[in-house]
Amino acid sequence: MRTLWLLLLFIYEAQSHAVSTPNFVLLMADDLGIGDPGCYGNKTLRTPNIDRLARGGVKLTQHLAASPLCTPSRAAFMTGRYPIRSGMASRSQVGVFVFSASSGGLPHSEITFAKLLKNQGYATALIGKWHLGTSCHNRTDLCHHPLSHGFDYFHGLPMTNLRDCKPGEGSVFTRALRLLVFVPLQVIAITLLTLAVLMCLGFVQVPPCVFFCLFFLAALVLGALLCFLHYFRPLNCFLMRNRDITQQPMSYDNLTQRLTADAAQFIQRLGPKGACIDLKEGDDEEEEDKKQKQKQKEKKKQKEKKQQKQKWKQKQKKQQKLKKQQKQKQK
Ligand SMILES: *[C@@H]1O[C@H](CO)[C@@H](O)[C@H](O)[C@H]1NC(C)=O
Ligand SMILES: *[C@@H]1O[C@H](CO)[C@@H](O)[C@H](O)[C@H]1NC(C)=O
Ligand SMILES: *[C@@H]1O[C@H](CO)[C@@H](O)[C@H](O)[C@H]1NC(C)=O
Predict the structure, then answer these.
(1) So where are the chain's domains?
(2) How far is the C-alpha of 115 from the C-alpha of 112, rounded, in Å?
(3) What does the alpha-carbon distance between residue 262 and residue 5 come to, in Å, rounded to a whole number?
(4) Of these residues, 17, 39, 63, 70, which one is catalytic?
(5) Is 253 a pocket residue for ligand 3 (Cβ < 6 Å)?
(6) Beta strand 123-129 with 153-157: parallel, antiparallel or unpaired?
(7) How is residue 104 annotated by DSSP?
(8) pLDDT digits (tens, 9 = 90+) for 240-270
(9) What is the mean pLDDT of the chain?
(10) Where is the composition biased (Basic residues) (predicted)?
(11) 35 Cα nearest atom in ligand 1
(12) What is the CATH T-level fold of the domain 174-224, as seen in this structure?
């Protein structure tokens, strides 16, 4: 499944074997609707692993998200409180963190379930996307980082998965850029043209410094646009392991596989008591495909065998008939 690379994965590993502290894994997928997994009735998308989990457990059919956006709904998911209570429900149009330089984030006064579990002796990890803020004052303090919210280990995207992070996939900022760049440029161009025409016709006397200022302004706006396009990706699309940046800008090549492998490693590092869940939806599908193809091949072979048998029987019948006819003729 394409959406699955955005898994937010929390793994909890009990340090003791007490019955009251079971291990658990929580998966959170962005942009996955209830109509998408096979266990909820989808016939076109195959999700064998999710379906298997549903078959072996409990399938809930009613859920309300606290918000339709990642930042506020993740804040609610993490704390069990409405996002407006933690200040994570923005009134602005954007509503989510878009720049890693934003100084906000999930407040420390909030109690995430990771904090509660850590206090109970659990080892906790978050693998995947965080998107609840990173730093307060400068980019090194990482005060809103997952490690500051009860997680022992973090590997993934501190920000989010924007189109702008993939080269050639377009931008989510086209409307903002139109308003902040293209409209001002058009205004400057029209002003310049009008002034030039009026001056040529002799209606007004425009000092050259006005033209210079307008050109300078246009160059400034264009320069800002180029800087934005050039620096957005490296500054906002990066991968971190704990407090270190491990890939900047991040590459989407095998990202799901890399994060899945790391999640499995986290479980293995903690020993055999860890619950092991196969997240490799893709691989499983391939295996299923192979199995189905093999089944189809076997069916074909069986059909061919049947046909051959039938042909052989028909031949034998014909031969018997011929023999009978010959015998009759002889008589
Ligand atoms: C299955 O998922 C696809 C992709 O989201 C969707 O287009 C389709 O309508 C879904 N089918 C059902 C029966 O919900
Ligand atoms: C970043 O902020 C923290 C906390 O305010 C401070 O201790 C640290 O010195 C700052 N680092 C830099 C490089 O300014
Ligand atoms: C991605 O994974 C596939 C299969 O494991 C591998 O063949 C390919 O080289 C990997 N690509 C990158 C860029 O790592």
Answers:
(1) 18-162+240-292, 174-224
(2) 5
(3) 13
(4) 70
(5) yes
(6) parallel
(7) -
(8) 999 999 999 999 999 999 999 999 999 888 8
(9) 83
(10) 292-331
(11) 14
(12) Helix Hairpins (1.10.287)
